């Protein structure tokens, strides 16, 4: 980020004594300032109307992040025989091992999701859920499915936001003690979480049928994704992505409108809860901000 500022926005390496490059740098800076001013006004309006639910945003975000794991555990239990048959006949799991695979996944998802919700042992809970993502990718043979891969990268990004949020609270609890290592970890994990969260939208852009509305939403969403990654008005852009993904989820993944035996019902339900998880990660980002590795924080310094 520092390198980009040094060579792109301010042209420090090629100043013109007659003022030409200086005017160009001022023009770029004024454009960013204009965007920042307009988005700040929108953020103020959002802050005003969201004030009643602000104290509950972290809890809502954590619940939404793990809801896909709870739904997955429930689906395994309600489709136990079908799951065993699939693992045995299509994935080559021997009898007994397929039972153990499913049971360990269910217990881990329920236990770790509960710990995330109640904000206990977050480090171990997040590690357990990440392990489930990796194990299921190999167990169900989905490791090379690009859409599955991108979606689960976003889920992992949400889990990293949970981890960062728990470290923020630890730091506040011991505010009088040195917390350099914890602070450094939080910065890196918040950056990684921001980057990974946007992969779901990339998967959305490259899947499905194209239309004028889809192109417009994709462009708007990709701009918001870039803003989230670089941390420029991250709260505003994360809120915009929450709105886009929520509307998309309700309109496209409306599994409750499908017949019980519809072939796409399970896929729509799976997609619906996965998007809820990414929305939860974005809500944590809205609540906590982008962290120190961001343009927003650098602006405060300079």
Please give a quick description of this structure.
One of its GO terms (cellular component) is endoplasmic reticulum membrane. 77% of the residues lie in helices and 0% in strands. It has 13 helices and no strands.
Structure description:
The chain has 302 residues and is mostly helical. The chain has one domain. The chain is built from 13 helices and no strands. Helix 3 packs across helix 7, helix 7 packs parallel to helix 12 and helix 9 runs antiparallel to helix 10. The two termini are 14 Å apart. 31% of the residues are buried. The N terminus is likely disordered. This is SURF4 family-domain-containing protein. Belongs to the SURF4 family. One of its GO terms (cellular component) is endoplasmic reticulum membrane.
Record the SSE blueprint.
Layout: H1 2-9, H2 20-50, H3 57-78, H4 80-89, H5 97-118, H6 122-139, H7 146-173, H8 180-197, H9 199-205, H10 212-230, H11 234-252, H12 265-288, H13 295-301
Helix pairs in contact: 3-5, 3-7, 3-12, 5-6, 6-7, 7-8, 7-9, 7-12, 9-10, 10-11, 11-12
Any idea how many domains? 1
Dominant shape = globular
Into which percent range does the helicity of residues fall? over 70%
Rg (C-alpha, Å) = 22 Å
Runs in which pLDDT lies below 50 for 5 or more consecutive residues are 1-22, 171-180
What is the H-and-E element order? HHHHHHHHHHHHH
Number-wise, the strands total 0
Average pLDDT taken over every residue: 76
Kindly, what is the distance between the CA atoms of the first and last residues, rounded to a whole number of angstroms?
A: 14 Å
Discrete helix count? 13
Structural class: mainly alpha
Sheet bearing the most strands, described?
none
Strand content: under 5%
